[in-house]
Amino acid sequence: MGVTCYPEWCQAPWLNGNHLPLPPQVHLDVILLAIWQIWEARNKLMFDQASSTASDILRQVINDMDSWSCRYKDNKNLLHTWRMYLAQLM
């Protein structure tokens, strides 16, 4: 899929991105969305022979964040900060 994975990332994936200057209040939610979309991309590759790029996965994470944003009434700005960070990675 063109994505580099380091063993330490797999041991505690919820810690990925902890060092970034991003709001910690929604960190776990964003990481879980990313893990879910990586799993979805894996399933598409295995069962549909459809590959995904890292940008495709990030785009889907951002779409999920937008879909779930109503859940974050008090933290919308924090979620938006993460959204902007992920968008710049594409």
Please provide a written account of the structure.
By secondary structure, the chain is mainly alpha-helical. The chain has one domain (23-89). The protein is built from four helices and no strands. The longest helix is centred in the middle third of the chain and has 22 residues, at 27-48. The radius of gyration is 13 Å and the shape is globular. It starts with 6 loop residues before the first helix and ends with a helix.
Shape: globular
Strand tally: 0
Number of helices: 4
Report the uncertain regions: none
Ordered list of secondary-structure elements with their pairings:
Layout: H1 7-11, H2 27-48, H3 54-68, H4 76-89
Helix pairs in contact: 2-3, 3-4
Any key phrases for this structure?
90 residues, mainly alpha, 4 helices, 0% strand, globular
Brief digest:
This protein has 90 residues and is mostly helical.
